[in-house]
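Board notes (copied after class):
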Amino acid sequence: MKRSRPFIKDVSPAYFGAWLDRLFEGHEMAARKIGRSAYSVTGYVATEKAAKVQRTESALEQDFLTLLEYDWRVLRYATQPFKIQWKDETGRLRRFTPDVAVAYNDMAVRSDPALRTTIFEVKARAQLKARWAEEKPRLKAAFAWAKDYGCRFKVMTEREIRTPYLENVRFLLRYQKMYGDQDLYDARIPHICELLVRLGPTTPQALLGTVRGDAVHRGEYIPYLWHLVTQQIVGIDLAKPLNMKAPIWPTAQARAIAGDRV
């Protein structure tokens, strides 16, 4: 490996995939200790998509991890994963630690063959602008490194992260998993799918209005409906505000679950 190109110390491009697996499994140490800065709001995120609690260095990075938590395509991720080493114009060795490494599951890759492990740098636009002279060569080196190591490198700012989609994801994450009476779950999930298939495009409010019983009983169906949204069984546009009057529709999965009931 030519040292004139950006690299990870002791990790060749050929070995990078296996090394990254070890990182995601918690066998490699984080590359950077997070210090204080004007942009830092340190925090910790517990997740099933990482072997260890992940530390973040800004509120924006925490918001980005929220998106990763909801994204069904994301298999694993790690914050401050490694140091990329590169030489500046003077030949001096520099180091750059990207913010997040993300691996995607097999189903996601099959549906999008261009999808591959992605390394993200999360920065506020004001921070990028204020430090552009310093950031530009680092980011250029990171893009070159990603090409050599078979990854994608992307920069995420508040423009891409803090959207109505993020607000919807924050709301829906509480419904991503359902706990409690399994018999109720097994009864209500197909019932909702049946009602939705019968109605076609509708709204949560209209769908719940077709559930027999009083308002309290109908209200008990709301968590199950949002759960079906998180599983992509109930279709909805998450780029728009989420409420009881938002358009919803049955997906192919909903039709399959409803089956002969319709």
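Comment from the instructor: The chain has two domains: 13-162, 166-261. The chain has a mean pLDDT of 92.
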